[in-house]
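Sequence in, structure out. First:
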Amino acid sequence: MSKKSNRRRSAGVAAHQAPAPAKASAMTFESFRMDDAVSVLDRRDTLSYLESWHNGRWYSPPISMDGLAKAFDLPGPHSSCIRLKVNLLTQHFIPSRLLTRQEFRKWALDFVSMGNGYLERRSARSGRALELQHSLSRYTRRGVKEGTYFFIGDPRNEHEFASGSVHHLIQEHPTQELYGLPEFIGSLQSALLGEAATIFRRRYYLNGSHAGFLFYVNEESISEVDANAIREALRNAKGPGNFKNLFVHAPRGKPDGIQIKHFSEVAAKDDFLNIKNVSRDDVLAAHRTPPQLVGIVPVNNAGFGNITEAAAIFHQLEILPLMSRFLEVNEFVGEEAVSFLDYRPLPKA
């Protein structure tokens, strides 16, 4: 046999053994996702309190004051714990010549929720203090020059307070000493986790996937006419009163010839309740607030214990120390602007 014939036969064998090109699939796949959830406070804001910068006139806070103000509305017990402390403080506060109950309440809310509380002393020409006015922590800034403060609520018209006229109540933090940081700052990540779980579950239901299913038919006894009838019956099941039953008669059909496959298995995998419970417990621990005082329902038969005793301990360990902090303004104005009533225990349950 010639070399030419050998080459021709080898080429033929190679061509015969070459795999056939794969056929293009008739099925198409597409991935999608729901819209991204927007959190009220980005994690970078809570981790960036390393140094206070200034623009030559005032220092920038170590954490976003706007972010803290928005975090007040996080789902869960966060705002309830803050409101509870402020309500108890206001209940025991004794209004004075310099400070009204309304101004004290705003000042206390700022201090507990933002870690900073500002009061402006307004004086007569003689230098005698006339009144104390609250200034929002969200927009009040400490000046570079000692004793100066600015209000920057309107960027086009910043207001500079008279030197030495602002009392700054600070919740100290080891990272710096110019601004305060709230005590619950470490639990914000847990609160944000609970918020993310709530947003995910809400978007999951709004998306409608929890109610959808795949009606899979692999039954030879069902003709095209029967399939069209089933399709029409499913269409008519939508709208008001859509919880309807569907009957399919398939004599001598296979057990798995008709299947309904739900899309909602993810509902059992996101561990929603555990996430919410852990997030809630972290927030309560950070605020050091008994759960029964903010309306938390116990999940066991034992409950949370005596609410009267919990309220008394909470007042002793949390409210009294807070009261002592607000008394600091008396040294600033030189007279008793803040004082409180003695604690009256609740009737025994």
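Second:
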Amino acid sequence: MIDHLALAIGHGLLAIAMLRLVMRPALDEDPLIGAIRKQAQGNRKATSAAGRSAARRARADSEAAPREDA
């Protein structure tokens, strides 16, 4: 009888721990996925002529903008 009780308590606690881990909201979110998507999108833009031109214009605009030194 004690062996059954010990097994039931041990397995019950493991089941509760597993449910708490599975029900976490951050379980389905992988922070690396966003970084990989941004990198892939940047690579896609860099391979097209329009993307290279846009990047060149953005660099030229940022260099031409007046800088305010405080």
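Remark: The helical segments are 2-22, 31-47, 49-64.
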